[in-house]
Amino acid sequence: MDQAGPQALNESGYKTYPEPDRGPDPEAEWAEPVVQLRDVNKHFGDLHVLKDINLTVHKGEVVVVIGPSGSGKSTLCRTINRLEPIDSGTILIQGKELPQEGKELARLRAEVGMVFQAFNLFAHMSILDNVTLGPRKAKKVPRDKAEAEALELLDRVGIKDQAGKLPAQLSGGQQQRAAIARALAMHPALMLFDEPTSALDPEMINEVLDVMVALAKDGMTMMVITHEMGFARRAADRVLFMADGLILEEGTPEDFFTSPTTDRAKDFLAKILHH
Ligand SMILES: Nc1ncnc2c1ncn2[C@@H]1O[C@H](COP(=O)(O)OP(=O)(O)OP(=O)(O)O)[C@@H](O)[C@H]1O
Ligand SMILES: [Mg+2]
What we know:
By secondary structure, the chain is an alpha/beta fold. It has helices at 4-7, 73-80, 103-109, 127-138, 143-156, 172-184, 202-217, 229-235, 253-258, 263-273; strands at residues 33-44, 47-58, 62-66, 88-93, 96-97, 112-115, 190-194, 222-225, 238-243, 246-251. Mean pLDDT is 88; it is low at 1-26. Magnesium ion is lined by residues 73-74, 194.
């Protein structure tokens, strides 16, 4: 399928958003949807955290989610692989509805790689073993094959020389890159990132963002919660602004950052830009 839309680069090297003149079907030039949320609602007790969320992420698309604390960004991410159950609505991964439980849920979950703020590596296992564990246990990949691929992935994220170390022997940035390699080892159809750089010292943020930008350029489908506007401008096809459980605005990074339409988004941008 033609992926020219989301993959094209403009003069500044940023991906360009598909132009609106794409014929009668505005989605026609996108590759197939990887994730679809339809009328998704979620409550925590009385708190309505996700309100009729409708969202499609297409193959090769990079969607950045921003918004104030408590707006529901992490919950949105967590519903996508049913770490959080939803109250109503539908979630489809590669066209298949997420079941409540069972083998099919495990299979669909494996299509979604997650990288969190805290790296969540197994402390008593080497970096190499952290990366090979999923493929070996869940996919029954033989150890030598899993290790060869893990080393390639560690090379890709720039820490091949750290493979034999324990997580605690690595810097925060290196641990987060190991967590990215671990997620990639499962060959996910989609990578979800929930504030992957917010626990890092400033000098380590860019080394992680650079890996993410490279992934985006390689065509990985990604949904990224981050307040790193530089990343959004460099890599995002689309920015979603969430507030109070709603997607209030969505658009290209250029449009959103230069001309937000709602007061909530204007206030929010003013705050983070003056930070
Ligand atoms: N397990 C839970 N039980 C009860 N309330 C929860 C739970 N998880 C989240 N919430 C509440 O749901 C709302 C949305 O939380 P969520 O973590 O999705 O926000 P967020 O946009 O990711 O915020 P932040 O930017 O601070 O990470 C918040 O009010 C939060 O307190
Ligand atoms: Mg959050």
